[in-house]
Amino acid sequence: MLIESPQHRPPHDMSSPMLQIVTGCSHGKCHFCDIFTGVPFTALPMDEITADIDKIAQTATADLRRIYLTGGNPFALPVSKLEAVFDEVEQRIPTVKSYGGFCRIMDIEHKSDEDLKRLVARGVDEITLGAESGFDEALAFMEKGHVAADIVEQGQRLHDAGMRFTFFYLAGMAGAGRGQENALASAEVFSQAGPSRILVVTITPTKDWPLAHDIEAGRWQPPSEGEIAREIQTFVRHLSCTCMVNCSHDTDIIRFEGMVPLNQQKLVELMDHRIPQMNEQAARRMREALHGATF
Predict the structure, then answer these.
(1) Cα angle vertex 90, ends 112, 196, to 5°?
(2) Is there a domain that residue 4 lies in?
(3) CATH no. for residue 63?
(4) Does residue 258 fall inside a structural domain?
(5) Does residue 224 carry a pLDDT above 70?
(6) Which entry of 1, 60, 62, 257 is 20 to 30 Å from 142 by CA?
(7) Tens digits of per-residue pLDDT, 172-195?
């Protein structure tokens, strides 16, 4: 099966088979990413895709209902091309009725309301978006390619189309001394957009990221482990939407999962208890060891 490493799935899609339909990322400018450096954004030929579908079908059980589309951002493709992939999947695996995948905020902006409804009608019932932050200064510095207002607008369009969505929140993205600003702005923007889930990931710079040049030039400084933890706590404390918050990525030092607002106070209290117990040096060493980080 053609799966170019690395590929990523959110926790709730880990049991869904991956089907790569594009290479690269259509944006490819984020300072905190080197996954697709030098890889052009290209739709894979349909014969390669169908060959991979055949391989998935060989081991598919009667319980298989969902396929996770991979590549940098497969939903950048036109709806007609996505529908052609769905046709091939369902011809070979008739039990599949649901699709997910990673998507950029601006991939949604570039689709019409009718496009979104067509995707929902074909089973695209939940997607994962790299919102990362609702703080415009951080989004601009990292060249994310969208602003806070885009997150809110496209989130509302997804709601109108009947599609659930998950947001990534990249803790520490604003750099040293800006964590509280990032948390407050992001909590407000994410709450207005109303994702079903929020996945918290802690920024962990490596020497291969474009951000390494920013660090070397003094344009960006990594926040301390304590500042990042307090940022995450503030972010959770100020969310005002109904969603699941999952902070369990291997970059996260304090890990938890819970519903907001149902478990919100307990999550805040958990961090009140855990933050004073953090060991700054041990936490940093752990993330350096896991990810080859360069702070």
Answers:
(1) 50
(2) no
(3) 3.20.20.70
(4) yes
(5) yes
(6) 257
(7) 999 999 999 999 999 999 999 999
